[in-house]
Amino acid sequence: MIIIGLTGGIASGKSTVSKMIQEQHIPLIDADQIAREVVEPGEPAYDEIAETFGSDVLFADGTLNRKQLGSIIFQDESKRKKLNSIVHPQIRKQMSGKIAAYKSEGTEAIVLDIPLLFESKLTGWTDKVLLVYVTPDVQLKRLMLRDGSTEKEALARIQSQLPLEEKKQLADAVINNNGSVGDTRGQLMAALKQWGVGK
Ligand SMILES: CC(C)(COP(=O)(O)OP(=O)(O)OC[C@H]1O[C@@H](n2cnc3c(N)ncnc32)[C@H](O)[C@@H]1O)[C@@H](O)C(=O)NCCC(=O)NCCS
Ligand SMILES: Nc1ncnc2c1ncn2[C@@H]1O[C@H](COP(=O)(O)OP(=O)(O)OP(=O)(O)O)[C@@H](O)[C@H]1O
Q1: In the 3-class helix/strand/coil scheme, how is 141-189 assigned residue by residue?
Q2: Nearest to residue 177, comparing CAs of 66, 3, 19, 41?
Q3: Which atom of ligand 1 is nearest to the CA of 39?
Q4: CA angle at residue 10 from 91 to 69, to 5 degrees?
Q5: What is the predicted ipTM?
Q6: What is the distance between the alpha carbons of residues 170 and 175, in angstroms, rounded to a whole number?
Q7: Which of 95, 187, 97 shows the shortest CA–CA distance to 134?
Q8: Residues annotated in the binding site for ATP, as ranges?
Q9: Quick one: which ligand is closest to 139's CA?
Q10: In the chain, which segments carry CATH 3.40.50.300?
Q11: Distances 137 to 69, 133, 144, 166, 195 between C-alpha atoms, Å
Q12: What separation in Å is there between the alpha carbon of 196 and the centre of ligand 1?
């Protein structure tokens, strides 16, 4: 089984590319989605977050106030590291279980969509790394537009990750997503073809 790591920076276009991959019927494991599941009430990471960050980050019904937790951790590196140390082991556990299941089913290729693939040193899990790249100005503009955030908030999020320029040097293939969605689709198909994945 070939395992492709799909990564990028915040708002670089990973979700846009991951939709195209799923349209090709290639199985995809989404780390952001798992990250949401493991912090639901009743899950182990939830209790630890509630103990560490207190009721400020919870809604009255007990569910996690993601916006509030985000505003704390993207401004404070030590709090971000603390949250990562709670959530990331749970994400890895869920992901490795899903990878093993695909392997035992004899699946030919899967994609792991992991925003922090390089930061979390998970490239050892993958055979190839596909990076969705945009220039810093496009990244900032799209992030502010999508989230309705201020420039300060958006920059805090961008700066909590390894710069895309550095990630570009570490990837096996780069999709430049500065252009149109159609352009991006063409680059994706070329990368998959080069690795003998899909039709
Ligand atoms: C802080 C939280 C609650 C904010 O939630 P919110 O709904 O606003 O954002 P969402 O989860 O959709 O993440 C959006 C993007 O932010 C970036 N991001 C998220 N967490 C982090 C982090 N710890 N460090 C750097 N970038 C991050 C990623 O590019 C991600 O794609 C949430 O991001 C979270 O629980 N983060 C910790 C888990 C994690 O590291 N997830 C990302 C990688 S799997
Ligand atoms: N080629 C493109 N042209 C114009 N807008 C785009 C393009 N690609 C993505 N976008 C838009 O940019 C924003 C960010 O894209 P997307 O949500 O796919 O990024 P992401 O990398 O998955 O973000 P995150 O890390 O936050 O999950 C979205 O609003 C999306 O619609």
Answers
A1: HHHHHHHCCCHHHHHHHHCCCCCHHHHHHHCCEEEECCCCHHHHHHHHH
A2: 19
A3: 35
A4: 60
A5: 0.97
A6: 13
A7: 187
A8: 11-16
A9: 2
A10: 1-27+109-194, 33-106
A11: 26, 12, 11, 16, 31
A12: 32
Residue with tokens 């925003």: 115
Tokens 């040193």 sit at which residue?
A: 121
- State the Cα–Cα distance between residues 174 and 73, nearest whole angstrom: 29
CA of 31 to the centre of ligand 2 (A): 16
pLDDT digits (tens, 9 = 90+) for 7-33: 999 999 999 999 999 999 999 999 999
119 class by beta-carbon count within 10 Å (0-12 exposed, 13-18 middle, 19+ buried): middle
- Fold exhibited by the domain 1-27+109-194: Rossmann fold (3.40.50)
pTM: 0.97
Model confidence over 54-108: pLDDT tens digits?
Answer: 999 999 999 999 999 999 999 999 999 999 999 999 999 999 999 999 999 999 9
